[in-house]
Amino acid sequence: MSRINRREFVRHSLQAGAVVGLGDFGFLRGLPTLAADDVKAAPNKVQLSADIEPLVKLIEETPRNRLLEEVAGKIKKGTTYQELLAALMLAGVRGIKPRPVGFKFHAVLVVNSAHLATVAAPDADRWLPLFWSLDYFKSSQERNRQEGNWSMSPVDEAKLPAGHQAKQRFLEAMDTWDEEGADRAIASFVRHAGAIEVIEGFWRLGARDFRDIGHKAIFVANAWRTLQTIGWRHAEPIVRSLAFALLEHEGDNPAKRDGEPDRPGRENLKRLAKIRAHWQRGKPDAGAATSFLTTLRTGSPADVAEQIVDLLNKEVDPSSVWDGIFLGAGELLMRQPGIVGLHTVTTANALHFGFQNASNDETRRYLLLQAGTFLPMFREVMKQRGPALKDLKIDALEAAKPQATGAGAIEEVLTEVSKDKLAAAQKTLAYLQQPDADPQALMTAARRLIFLKGRDSHDYKFSSAALEDFYHATPALRNRFLAASMFNLHGTQDRDNDLVKRARAALA
């Protein structure tokens, strides 16, 4: 692949968000152009497409070393992006056990994250996240085979509850952690109710316990978002997988004991009535958001929840509470970069998405409380797993001005990411504070580095969540959140993955 020099970097960064050291993805020109409209949610188009089963089987049965070539051939013959995305998601939920909710099941969890990267990418790059996800599925499929070769069984049609009973039966089964009852009820429920009604209960269920460090909430959000793109007609196996995943637990039935992962969620249900009636609107208060960090650093889940109730009742706008949550998640990542730290960010993103999309007022209050109380629970897990948390505070992060300006500053920041994460965060903060800063150019460059350097599902999950939540934080504080994200992004000096090389060979 050809290289671009510093002069070319500056020119292309301003024009198309290129990053120094990134290869030319010109080999993708052999595929149909994937424009922005091609990757937007288009359920009607998907519903009119041919039966998806042959494409799912192609993904399931083709050996890993041949899958990219086979898919490239399908694309050239007219298979659409939505069809491939649907087939990938369905292959995942049908053939990979969603327990624990993580590990090999990231082949499913990452589908929406890769799709978000596709949506945000330049037209010429948009096939790469899908190619990466297809390849990653094959590694997860092999791990599933080694661990027992689980696959989703057909529902027993004779035992499904009647349509008018399905919703109540489903909620009761989930509350009593009844796996068989939940599976039968959700199959009937999804056939007899609309999409919004079906997903509404999942928002609460995905947030009710702290097992699997946030992956349950992540699965709810990502499943819903993927279905909005591929079409609701594919919902039944996906929500069956989702219900099964959310009932994952250790030991005896959680409904019959006071388990630590469940306790904060149960206590927060009791707190909902303490929040004022018109809590949805208040006065944005950056000071309240940063002061909230003190409680997040040292307080218990109950302390955090009580402060959220207090802030809302003092007419602080919920956006400022979310600011505190985003900053708290970013700070934990700074203090201990790694697998647990990055999930503070991805879980906050999922809970915030549920908060934005839930229609029930109590559910929205619950998600806000749970998002806050999860952070001290993350903090304790990080202390147990080590290494020791660093003494870093996101609101005290000092800016360090890059030597370069404009596109050159972006290059300097992303080069620093490979060498010194803290220095990269400081330079990011200084860059974003400049009047002519272009945060979108920085994020586009960071995203292209994921395409070139990313090797793990968390690279896509984290980058999609963090770069999306930059705009969910308020302008007064979002720069600090993006600066903290540098602790888990890739830099220009990181080693390349082999996906681009393999994709180029497949398309040749």
In which range does the helix fraction lie?
55-70%
Tell me about the largest β-sheet. none
Q: Name the average pLDDT.
A: 92
Strand/helix succession: HHHHHHHHHHHHHHHHHHHHHHHH
Characterize the overall form. globular
For the secondary structure, the number of strands is 0
Q: Show unreliable segments.
A: 1-18, 41-49
Strand content: under 5%
Distance between the termini: 14 Å
Query: SS-based structural class?
Result: mainly alpha
Number of helices: 24
Mind telling me the C-alpha Rg?
23 Å
Can you characterise this structure?
The structure is a single chain. By secondary structure, this protein is mainly α. The protein has 24 helices and no strands. It is globular. The two termini are 14 Å apart.
Set out the fold topology.
Layout: H1 6-16, H2 43-47, H3 53-61, H4 64-76, H5 81-95, H6 106-120, H7 128-146, H8 163-175, H9 179-192, H10 195-207, H11 215-230, H12 235-246, H13 263-271, H14 286-298, H15 301-313, H16 318-335, H17 339-357, H18 361-385, H19 407-417, H20 421-432, H21 439-453, H22 457-469, H23 478-485, H24 499-507
Attribute tags:
mainly alpha; 508 residues; 63% helix; single chain; disordered N terminus
What would a concise description of this structure say?
With 508 residues, the protein is mainly α. The chain contains 24 helices and no strands.
